[in-house]
Amino acid sequence: MRYDCDVLIVGAGPVGLTLALLLSSYGHRVTVLERHAAVYPLPRAVNLSHDIVRVWDGLGLHDLLFESAVADIRGTVSDEVEIVGAAGQVLRRVPYNGPSKTGTSRTFRLHQPALEKVLETACQQRDIELVRSMEVENVIDLDSHAEVFARGPSGVRKWLALFVVGCDGANSLVRRSMEFAFTDCPGSNTTWLVVDVIPKFDGAAQKWKDFYNARVHMNPRRPHASVFGTPQRRRWEFMLLSEEEIRKASDDEFVWSLIAELGCSPDNARIEKSAAFSVKGGWCENLNKGHVLLAGDAAHVTPTFLGQGLNSGIRDANCLSWRIDLALRYPKSNWSRMFQDWSSERLGGVHELIKASVAMEARVTITDSEQAIRRDLEYSQRPLAPRNPEKLGSPGMYALDFGLGVSSHDAVGSLFIDGVIRIGDRQGRLCDHFGCQSWLLLHSLVDDGSSRMPLSSDIASLFSVVLNGRILPIGKDSHDVMDVFSMWFLKYGSRGVLLRPDHYVYGIVKDIDELTTLVQKAIQHLGLFGGQLED
């Protein structure tokens, strides 16, 4: 049977376009369907985590993104978020920026329309088919592939693809069509007005209240938050207190009255966007059915309070792309197990983020003065501690029960560090050298200082062919410029680590002689071992 593409992605937002670029980097044919005729021109997501920048760096997009879409504001404004109580007192100062595992800032600012233009241009340059003004109406999973029916200007067309991924947002038609069960996370169900503002002249923004600080004002009279944007943008979010206010959310006079208290006026600012949104959270109980998968907001909806919605979706794409690659290259393997592990890894992580975000909403949105006083006292004593998004959920595709055992549990299944490596005359980070397509085996030199092959010949061959594996001995032909990796090995008493293409740790070993067994375990874990492999 002839298929229109290997993978059909529904939705051309950041998640869908990133997944398309990742799959294309493996050499697969990808089509993206998008119902909108053009990129949505107004801001949405503004917070970007370092591990997401690392994904795009691996796709060769760093310079383009930082020219127009992404900004590093560390050092120009506060690295802390201030939680402000009912009486205007600062209850907590929560670090949100600083050094990261990647060796860069922990968080960046984002202008989403510019991001989507960069990603879309990259797709066009890499021969990824993007079809706009095409709205999906039905998705059918069959034994060997999936069918997608979509309506465009010329009528309904059918696509045949080996896999379909719904990246079509919180109101996903793919999710509804395939009847994925969705669980709402109960919360306060509040409605907020988000206002994005641009200064009219240089120096105007610096005079606005909260310019140098991100703050969450838990004022029972009107909870609101100040949020950093890219250097020429600022965002404020205000809780709407009544049905009347919700109806007035599009009224310019009402919007100006809210931001006037912050020093903004038509004389020094232009409102780029104002829109009301209802806070919702929830997730699908499973992210795959046969040849159909979900990612991003189609799979789970994270309220805005922790700024992790877009980041969670890109993590979905990063953890999914290499699994789809293996499923396409080895269709007779047990690829359904890989997708089940992906589902549990991702849901295990986002569950806690969503619950933490909903819990924060419940605290921030208290409008009773006496309750707010009690809340402030409790908050100052027991602040929320959201789950670390750099740790995969469990169970997952990583080896907790191998090598160093319990002492390595905080490393295995976690995002690996990145640092500067000099290989030959080229210096860069791991993502610069190896991209996002390879399993990577890092190891220190053996006791005599040599860098002999750490794998048996048969496993080395499988590692190279099946996993596109690369081996990097630290200290001989590859120089650890700032001793980042050497210090990591020392911290865990390790001599070797196996990394997945998404930069998460599969497993670590105490002795280099254990690396063959670790790689063999990974291939078995994937259902891709020895004679079971068929091209």
TrEMBL record:
Keywords, comma-separated and alphabetical: FAD, Flavoprotein, Membrane, Oxidoreductase, Transmembrane, Transmembrane helix
Highest taxon of the lineage: Eukaryota
Domain FAD-binding: 4-329
Transmembrane segments: 7-26
InterPro entries (alphabetical): FAD-bd, FAD/NAD-bd_sf, PheA/TfdB_FAD_monoxygenase
A GO BP annotation: 3-(3-hydroxy)phenylpropionate catabolic process
GO terms for MF: 3-(3-hydroxyphenyl)propionate hydroxylase activity; FAD binding
Protein's name according to its UniProt entry: FAD-binding domain-containing protein
Organism per entry: Talaromyces pinophilus
